[in-house]
Specification:
The protein is mainly β. It contains one helix and 48 strands. 5% of the residues lie in helices and 37% in strands. The radius of gyration is 30 Å and the shape is elongated.
Length: 432
């Protein structure tokens, strides 16, 4: 039995249009180019083996670039990667050098170490390697990943705002320029910058250091290391810092409900601790210390001027004003002791209210840090040289300083003579 299917003229026209669109889609997919070094080189590229030169290279959406030989170097004027897959399944140690800009769009993969005039990507780009510039900026779109370190000499580094489910993740940051970390980003290693300005909800896998000015975390931050800033440090609220915080010339502000595992050292001015904050170690301030309600300090507090503690706040050890300025405590039992003045004999005359807490026993009130150097080895990692005073002012070695089994008693720290410009030392962050 033969069956016939009738189609109206309108339906036939729709079928023809549909077939045209299908054909166009197939044509676009087929238009993606495949290149190979060596082999089918893009237009404007030349070279052989492991060394190639290209001009301003612009790749199309979905293009693929295969690299055959390990340790290949491609030198370009600039590279517009679009969504291309560059060495995605490829060899180790591909290097891309360019004086101009590397730009890429979401979905691109670039497996290479990149040295560029600037780097700019929109959307989630996968960089398997490191990104480096001199004066140019590095800007990464939300959801991008960089397995290596972002490095600039003076150029700015910006990680754009992500989401709670789409963090931008980089291996580390080492910059002489401004570092701006918008919300929902992750840095797996250490972060170094001229200054660090963050918007909150960021995760720092290592320590943070600013070479010239401040650190501002924006709140809801996690720092798995210490913070060292030339000027002020502002953690924002609900942040967690596992190490210590040091401000070389200015103040420290912890924010509400922030937890600091180590100590706070404001070598320039004051320390402000907001409500429900916790400090595991001690606090030192060049001027005053202010604690609002329900905050805790596990070590000593030493300030040159006033110390103020709000209701519900506690200090496990000694609270001391070396200038014999006013010490305000919520109750006599809220502190381990009090000390007015810088001498070896403590009094409680500067403490407001009655009854007054017991005076601190000397020398515990004056013990700022103690390093026994009993660790078997050091590698320059933050917090590796332990402070056994209880104030958690842990340090790290610099240069060729090393552990030795031939200490005066037990182990010790061996520091070379420093006869050249290279520095070998113990870094504690303590102002002496």
């Amino acid at each position: 039995m033969t069956l016939f299917h009738w189609m109206s003229p309108c339906m036939r026209r729709m079928a023809v249009v549909s077939l045209c669109w299908v054909g166009m889609g197939v044509s676009q997919l087929a238009g993606a180019a495949s290149y190979s070094f060596p082999g089918a080189l893009p237009a404007g590229c030349s070279g052989s083996g492991t060394s190639y030169t290209c001009g301003a290279l612009s790749l199309g959406a979905g293009d693929t670039v295969a690299v055959v030989n390990a340790s290949t170097t491609i030198t370009l004027t600039s590279l517009s990667a679009n969504t291309a897959q560059i060495n995605a399944a490829g060899v180790a140690n591909l290097t891309l050098n360019m004086s101009g800009t590397l730009s890429a769009a979401g979905g691109a993969t670039i497996k290479a170490n990149v040295n560029a005039g600037a780097v700019s990507s929109s959307g989630a780009v996968s960089y398997v390697g490191s990104l480096s510039t001199t004066t140019g900026a590095i800007s990464l779109g939300a959801g991008s990943t960089v397995t290596g370190v972002l490095t600039t000499t003076t150029g700015a580094i910006t990680l754009l705002t992500g989401t709670s489910g789409s963090y931008t993740t980089v291996g580390g940051i080492n910059s002489g320029g401004i570092v701006t970390i918008n919300a929902y980003n992750r840095i797996n290693g250490d972060t170094v910058g001229y200054l660090l300005s963050a918007a909150g909800h960021n995760v720092f896998g290592g320590s943070i250091t600013t070479t010239t000015t401040y650190v501002s975390l924006g709140g809801n931050a996690t720092v798995n290391g210490s913070i060292y800033a030339q000027t002020y440090v502002d953690t924002g609220g609900n942040s967690t810092i596992t190490g210590s915080i040091t401000s070389a010339t200015s103040y420290i502000d912890t924010g509400t409900a922030t937890t600091v595992g180590g100590s706070l050292n404001a070598l320039g001015t004051y320390v402000d601790i907001h409500g429900s904050a916790s400090v595991g170690g001690g606090i030192y301030a060049k001027s005053y210390v202010s604690m609002t309600t329900n905050s805790t300090v596990g070590g000593n507090i030493t300030a040159n001027s006033t110390v103020y503690m709000g209701s519900g706040s506690t200090v496990s050890q000694c609270v001391r004003s070396t200038g014999a300025s006013t010490i305000t405590v919520p109750s006599a039992g809220a502190v381990g002791g009090a000390c007015c003045g810088a001498g070896s004999t403590c009094t409680s005359t500067c403490v407001t209210g009655t009854p007054k807490p017991a005076t601190c026993a000397w020398p515990s009130s004056g013990l700022f840090a103690e390093y026994k150097f009993e660790q078997s080895s050091y590698g320059g990692t933050d917090g590796e040289v332990l402070d056994t005073s209880g104030n958690k002012r842990h340090g790290h070695v610099v240069g060729g300083a090393s552990s030795t089994a031939s200490g005066k008693f037990c182990r010790g720290l061996l520091i070379p003579q420093n006869l050249t410009s290279a520095i070998d030392a113990l870094e504690t962050g303590i102002d002496v």
